[in-house]
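Posting this for the archive.
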Amino acid sequence: MYKWIGERLIDALLQLHLFNWSCNDAEILSPLLEYLNSTQIGSMVFLKLQKVIGNTAQPPNTKTTTPPKEFKIKVIDEVREDLYNIIKEYFEKEQHEHLLSLFSGGKINGKLIFKGKANQLTNIFKQLFENNMIIIQDKKDLRDWIVENFANCDKNEVKELNTRTTLDSLSNKYYECKKPIIEITTGKINKK
């Protein structure tokens, strides 16, 4: 039954198109194709229509790729060097230059490996964010920036940071840091 309906629908749409349908094909066809894709005939309909009308319609369920988000993040100048001097020991010497570049708003290739617990790393940035010492729009952007630029090495195993737990740590929902590396008092960063 679906096949018969699909064939009749295809024929009707093709006839409308052949008679110079006056409205924008993609405007009408895209929602229709999305609906048809939920049935058994969606792909068949799309392929037949695309042969006749060309590439004016996108295939159903085609996701357009969005470019990666550009993060505008930077540790403020007044505390950047103090922060760097305190936490650089948690990174390999070869990564120190990249760490400083990242704190200055630069981009890096790959990820910096933090030698410690993931919640210690996120706690650093949480404190910076709460004390207005890091320039970024919101905690979700901060989370994405951390996950994109850092991994952690705990018990000799390098691990990717988890997006959900990183945000939870930044929001202090479930993962309170028991051994923070820094503390911020009266606008100054100190080693804890």
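The chain has two domains: 2-53, 74-191. Residues 2-18 form the longest helix (17 residues).
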